C-alpha cells in the first residue's frame, strides 16, 4: 500500500505555469516513490544485521545490488530536477556503491593442487582438508589409533562448482532463503541438490579421485565416505553438514562423492550455515575416504553425556556414554580420573576392556582439542579399537559477524544531517542511507523553491516557528492556513487551519521538558484544509506523517513512519518496540524492520482521527526529548504503558 498520498493533492497543476516542466515534477514524484523502496530495503538489511531476521547471505547480496540500482535511479531523478547543482552526485554514489559491493560480495575461492592427499597430510593442508580430516590427522599424530585413508580436498568441490557453472545458479536459488523454517528450506534443498547432481566431474579430477580410491581400498573391497563442510579459514566444521556413505564400490567413487557432499545442501545444514553467518560459496565440502573393515562392533562415544541418573560424586563432572550399533543401551562411564563404569548394557558385543579403551581415547581427544568430543569408533575382528572420525560435541563453532557489521556501515549508517550544513553535502556521504536522506532533503527543497506568490492558490512557502525548537517550512495547497497568514513569511501555530496539522501540533507543540538545541526538529509540511503530509528531521531520526482528517470518514487515514539513526542496536530495537506498542494500543496496524516502523490507521470519524494525531504528536515529541527512549534495564512495553497512561 502506498504510504504517501501527497501527489493526489500536490498535483502538477498546482504550480505556476511556466515555472516547472512536467518532467521536473515527475522526477520528484519518482524520486519520492523510490525513497520509500530504498528505506524499506535499508531497514530490511538493518533487521538482518540486528539479528531480528535471518536470511541466506545470497539474499543480502541481492538486496544490496537492488538497493544500489534504485538509489542510482533516484539520484538521476534528482539530477533531472537541477542538473547543474547536482552534476557531481554520481561520483560520490559510485564510490559508496563500490564499497557496498566490496562489503557484501563473497569472493570466489582460489583453486589449487593438491586435490587429493593422504589423511596424515591433512594438517599441512588444513583449509583444503576441512576441520574433520585435520582433527582426525591430529589424533593420529598424537598416537590415537585412527582408521587411515585419503582426503578429497575442498578444491575438488570448488572445481566441480566452477566447471559446471553452478555458483550463480546456487546463489540464485538461495536468494529465496528468507527464513530458517525447515519446510521452506527443504524445497530450496531439493532444488539445489537436483541441480548439483546433474553436474559432471571433469575427467582429470575424476581420474585423480579414482586413483585415491584405489590406493585407499588397496584393491581389497569397498569404501566409506565421510563428508563435511568447513567455512574457509575456520577451524570448525559447520553443524548438521556431516554424513557418511558406505559401502561404496571403488568404481562408483565419483557419484558417491557427489552424493556425499550434498549433505551441505540439506535443509538442516543450510539453516545451520545461515545462522552461523556464512555464505554458501565460502563453505565448501571435503571428503575423507576410508577402507571398509570387517568389524566386530562399531558406534560412537560422547565424551560429555547428559544424564540425570548419576551417583552423587559424578554429578558435577557428568559422564561419558559409549553407544554401540549392536546394543540399544549405552555404557556410562565416570569422567573422573579412573573413568569407572557407572552402568552397562545387559547384553553387548563390546567388552569392558574395549569400552574402557574407547573411553580413554575419547578423553585423549577431548584433552587434545580442549572441548568435549563425539568420536566414531570401530573394533575389528581382533577387538582392536580405531577412531574413524571426531568432532566437537556439543557443537562449538565460530559465527561470522564482521561482514554484516561492515556492510551496515556502508548501507545503513547515517553520517550527515541537514541541521549541519557543513556536513550535509554529497561529498560527506559515507553510506547509501546518507544518499537517500540527501536526495529526499534536496528534492523537497527544490520543489519548495519553485513556489511563489504567483502560484495557483499557493501563498508561498512559510516558516512555522514556536517556543519549542521546532521549525517547519509549510506549503499551503488549499485552505490549510487562516487568512491571518496572508503576506507573512513567518507564521505561528495560531495561523494553522488544516485540521490534521493542528491536531498533530496539539501533541507535538505541547509544553514539555527536554527540548534544547541538540534535539531540535526541522521539517516540511504540505497542507490543505483536510490533508497533511509532514516530514520531520532531527540530527539522526526521520519521521513522516501522512493524514486526511475529513468529515467523510471513508477517506480518513493516518500513515506514520519513523526511521531512526541514533543509538546502539539494542537501544534502537527497544525504541521501535516502544513505538509499536504505543501505536498498537491506539488501534494502528504496524510493521517494522530494523530501525524503521510504519503504522497505519484507516477510516475513523473526524474526532477520532484528531485524537490519534494528537497522540502521534506527543509520541514524536517524546522520542525527540528522551534519549534513549528505553534505558538499559528497562522494558520497552512497560515504558510504553507509562507513556500511554500519561496521555490522559
Task: Tell me what you see in this structure.
The chain is α+β, with helices and mostly antiparallel strands and 648 residues long. It has four domains: 21-106 and 403-434, no CATH class; 116-291, Dna Ligase, domain 1; 295-392, ATP-grasp fold, B domain (D-amino Acid Aminotransferase, Chain A, domain 1, 2-Layer Sandwich); 450-648, no CATH class. Helices cover 40% and strands 19% of the residues. The strands form three sheets. Strands 14-12-13-15-16-17-18-20-19 form a nine-stranded mixed sheet, sandwiched between helices. A six-stranded antiparallel sheet has the order 9-8-7-6-10-11. Strands 1-2-5-3-4 form a five-stranded antiparallel sheet, sandwiched between helices. It is elongated and about 105 Å long. The model is unreliable at 453-457 (pLDDT under 50). Keywords: ATP-binding, Kinase, Magnesium, Metal-binding, Nucleotide-binding, Pyruvate, Transferase. Catalyzes the phosphorylation of pyruvate to phosphoenolpyruvate. It catalyses: pyruvate + ATP + H2O = phosphoenolpyruvate + AMP + phosphate + 2 H(+). Residues 129-308 form the Pyruvate phosphate dikinase AMP/ATP-binding domain.
User: Approximately how much helix is present in the residues?
Assistant: 40-55%
Radius of gyration: 33 Å
Give the overall average pLDDT.
92
Shape category: elongated
